[in-house]
Amino acid sequence: MPPVPACGVHVANRRLGATLATLSCLLPGPALAETSSPDELERILVVGAAPDQASETSGDYTSPANRSATGLSLTPRETPQSVSVITHRRIQDQGLETSGEILESAPGVSMTRSDSNRRSYSSRGFSISSFQFDGLLTPINNFWNFGDTDWDSILYDRVEVVRGATGLMTGAGEPSASVNFIRKRPLDEPQIRAGIAAGSHDRRRVSADISTPLSDDGRVGMRLIAAKDTRDSHVAHLSDDSETFYGVVQAEPSEATTLRAGLEYQHNQTDGAGSGFPLFHADGSRTDYDRSAANNTRWSHFFNETTRGFVDLGHTLDNGWTLRAAYSHDDGNYGLRYLYRGGYPDRYTGQGMSPYFANYRGDRTRRDLHLTAEGEVSLFDRRHELGLGWMRVEDQMTIGLASPRGGYPDIGGFFGDDYHRVPEPDWGRHDTIDDGRIVQRGGYAVARLSLADPLSLIAGVRLSDWEIDQTYYGDRRRYAYEDELTPYAGLIYDLDERVSVYASYTSIFDAQNKRAPDGSLLDPVRGDSYEAGLKASLLDGRLDAALAVYRTDQQDLGEAIPGEEVSGRPGTQAYRAVDGARVEGFEAEVVGELADGWRLSASYTLADAEDADGEATNTDHPRQQLKLFTSYRLPGAWQGLTLGGGARWQSETHRQASSPNGSTRVGQDAYLVADLMARYRFSDRLSAQLDVNNVFDERYYEQIGFYSQAWWGEPRSAVLSLDWQW
């Protein structure tokens, strides 16, 4: 609910006196400070909490509101699209420790890896390329890995996933999903948390989270977070190491103004980096390597390092309108040296694979600026909400490649431990192979119109510009698209106080970074996205349920050409434009609290993608997914114990891969992975949690067919963690 102008700005439970004053304005009768006991006050605060409250203070699987879909603060029932929120409690209960693991747990999102470090995420049959941090758009590059999907989960209060096209908020983007990572902020009360963990594959982790007020009146607060994580892998000679630091200061110069500034740093490093193992022998038969196999060496090394600073200023006017200005600056470094073996090994000697030695170094600078305004207006004796926004994102990137001096060393055979013992070559200088600058600009206007008591219309439009200036392997290319108009409309009808139905529409514009066989960029994808559904708030608001059907039509969609590379660019997949592509699907989700202490998150999604001829497309993404997680805190004498578990099922996937006998279909059958957890709280300050992943040790591929190689999913593993809180 927007602030009530006559009473000033609502202060979100930072200072007791200010909160009481605000509530006394909102509620009739004498001042609450004179009539309410502390227990009564706590009950009132929970009922009347601000929609954007931190999920770590609520302890729920549900979130009361989000801004990721339209920029307006809307409850799930008021949002005419499919929205899922992974709250702080979900992150803790499921033991999700990276942003990638959070995404994999979200309804309808699937992960596919290209190699040890490049992972891509998809929804509704398309790759996710639109990320936000606190609502600031941050496009990612799935080819050059600057760590955009590898952040430590300790930074986030919650993650909001809007499935479907989100052109109103993100401009150019695929009709898959937009992901908004909401960072933690200083808490109202002092808190110190520390954690340690150890587990399978020599897993070790330490973390600390400190929040404290910096002024007596609570107007200034600070939070510092640090984490160190190291682990080996089920893959031979592969290990990961990450360091994360985060600091944020929040100040309230007045009751109407909030200023927040922060700095993030993350360093990820992988020793033994490489690609998947070959699927075929030279005679065309399938290989049968165990789960430790990978196409790497002992000296292979990957790292990314990101430093991000941000400033966020919000101010509420006397008439209740809220203004926001936010700026973010990223500096990223990237490095990869490795040996890629292509081709097919001899069944008996392991010989015959072709080598490609590469040493990449890259730098990236990104600048994001967002300006927004939101408030209420009166029209035709009804109250409506209006939002305005403008953004600019500039992304500059340079990638250099060094090759061995004096030719390639002998790579031996792909058997036993021999393929790890290839010596590292003497590298030459780094020559620039990819130097580009991408700028996105856009402004939007959106209104939530109250047409009648049960009927609301959300209508908006975005005007976007997109340009790229890139030199790729010596070829200069400049593209620009101006005044791209993206309309959005959604209608919501309340059947009663608990159930709503909705329908929405938006257009699609996606400037592709995919290349034809001759190296030219494909034209942007254009199309339309439709969605209709039903949402319900059940059990006195403790449980949210949603059903949705959708259809997406696209033109000029880039589709991989099996076995074909870009001319003169080894290892670069070639694409062709496909007209008449269509995805139709169905989604269902239930999330919340079924009974005291019993929480649930369950979802089923279906995405059926076809081209204009009715042939299946995007078959390397699963058509169907089922995800379930539940936790239960035992009552009575065992109330310190919480038990939980979940399962992830996906339907089969397949793609065409090259083999010695020509193009061959390879795939992954449908599979299910089950996990278990148990947490015991010894006291208000100390708890222990055990997570067991892939309980039944399911054997499955995380990637199959990418350059005729594959990567095994992680076998059974366990992690034991301790958490202290003061």
- Given helix and strand content, the structural type is mainly beta
Number of strand elements: 39
The helix count comes to 7
Strand content: over 45%
Separation of termini?
A: 33 Å
Low-pLDDT regions: 1-51
Q: How confident overall, as mean pLDDT?
A: 87
Question: What's the alpha carbon Rg, rounded to whole Å?
Answer: 26 Å
Shape: globular
User: Biggest sheet: strands, sense, closure?
Assistant: 22 strands, antiparallel, barrel
What percent of residues adopt helix (DSSP H or I)?
A: under 10%
Short structural description:
The chain has 726 residues and is mainly beta. It contains seven helices and 39 strands. A hairpin with a 2-residue loop joins strand 19 and strand 20 (382-402).
Word description of this protein:
The chain starts with 15 loop residues before the first helix and ends with a strand. The strands form 7 sheets. It has a 22-stranded antiparallel barrel. Strands 1-7-8-5-6 form a 5-stranded mixed sheet. The N terminus is likely disordered. The chain contains 7 helices and 39 strands. With 726 residues, the chain is mostly beta strands. A hairpin with a 2-residue loop joins β22 and β23.
